[in-house]
Design goal:
There is one protein chain. The chain is of the alpha/beta class. It contains eight helices and ten strands. Strands 1-2-3-4-5-6-9 form a seven-stranded parallel β-barrel, surrounded by five helices. A two-stranded antiparallel sheet has the order 7-8. Helix 3 links the parallel strand 3 (about 55-60) and strand 4. Helix 3 runs parallel beside helix 5 (about 120-135), helix 4 crosses helix 5 (about 120-135) and helix 5 (about 120-135) packs across helix 6.
């Protein structure tokens, strides 16, 4: 892991099902629910305050409008609808960030919208366009080597190629669907081994055994897992032990 000296460590917060106060000190950036899959105005304000108190860069986590399914069901949509929904959610969260004296840092789709944008160029372009239209200075987080990161680059955004600590991968570099056995890594030791491989060797071992090249600008941990706070502490300690500075992607000199 010595080849890389800096990594962003991000987590999804403001969803009402995790210990945001315990997770925030361990991470460098957070993607906050904007009300479509989870969260509400009071929870958004609270999550922003927690992040800013701990120096965590605040991003928006736009989703399908699917509170019942926690945004993890793929809904029928159009690029026009996705553009409008994304713009709406960016604006909602940015209002709370601005009111608290901060500035929105990034945008990262949530759940099924994230996975759809990873493979569907038209949906990816709609999200990238919405982010650019709202603020071309925002960073777009997306699955490494996906249609979303490509779309962001095409419209002139800075993009962060994202990898996941505790999700399995397929041979094509996509995430194993959650309805498949073993899609979520429950073991901390297995998650740490996957993270070391991605950061040290630029490789993730797919569910079916293939070694898949991968780029890692930002490392994600899901904040809704019951042990997220303990996972976050352990991951941070492991990253620091390997010589990493944990910081948001792109400094002022990048």
């Amino acid at each position: 892991m010595s080849r890389r000296l800096r990594i962003d460590f991000n987590c999804d917060l403001g969803e009402g099902c995790g210990d945001d106060a315990a997770i925030a000190p361990q991470i460098s950036s957070a993607s906050l629910a904007c009300g479509f899959h989870a969260g509400d105005p009071l929870r958004m304000r609270e999550a922003v305050a927690v992040c800013l108190r701990h120096g965590v860069a605040v991003g928006a986590h736009p989703s399908f409008p699917d509170r019942e399914g926690f945004g993890r069901r793929e809904l029928a949509t159009t690029p026009e609808q996705v553009h409008a929904d994304t713009l709406y959610q960016l604006g909602a969260l940015a209002a709370f960030v601005r009111a608290a004296g901060g500035r929105l840092h990034h945008a990262k789709p949530h759940g099924a919208l994230y996975n759809l944008a990873a493979r569907d160029a038209a949906i990816a372009e709609a999200i990238a366009a919405a982010v650019r239209d709202f603020d071309p200075g925002l960073i777009l987080y997306g699955l490494a080597h996906s249609a979303l990161t490509a779309a962001g680059e095409r419209v002139g955004l800075r993009v962060a190629h994202e990898v996941f600590a505790e999700r399995r991968y397929e041979a094509d570099g996509t995430l194993t669907p959650r309805d498949q056995p073993g899609a979520v890594i429950d073991s901390l030791d297995e998650a740490l081994a996957q993270v070391r491989g991605m950061l040290r060797d630029g490789i993730v071992v797919a569910r079916t055994g293939e070694h898949v090249p991968i780029r890692a600008d930002t490392l994600c941990l899901h904040g809704d897992r019951p042990d997220a706070a303990a996972f976050a502490r352990a991951l941070r300690e492991a990253l620091q032990a390997e010589g990493f500075d944990i910081a948001p992607p792109f400094s002022a000199t990048d």
